[in-house]
Automatic annotation (TrEMBL):
Residues 6-76 form the Transcription regulator AsnC/Lrp ligand binding domain. One of its GO terms (molecular function) is sequence-specific DNA binding. It comes from the Bacteria. One of its GO terms (cellular component) is cytosol. This is AsnC family transcriptional regulator. GO terms for biological process: response to amino acid. It holds the Pfam family AsnC_trans_reg.
Amino acid sequence: MITAIVLVHTLADRIPETAQAIADIEGVAEVYSCAGDVDLIAIVKVREHEQLADLIAGRISKVDGVQHTDTHIAFRSYSRADTEAAFSVGST
């Protein structure tokens, strides 16, 4: 599974509606509204790289209220649970 983090800049008065419209798109796992330089962060999960173009440029970028996006493709996932599981292998 390929994970991409999509930073979404929106019109300020359309954030809730834009977030929900993006969340309703197949392939979008989660959408967060946040403070800072970006209005929304969408977590996208697809099986093939070609699907990213269809999903991001073809669907997310065309949602009413989206001004522009910045996409980051994840190489590896790290979490506390993963780290603890790796170090507990073979221990009793």
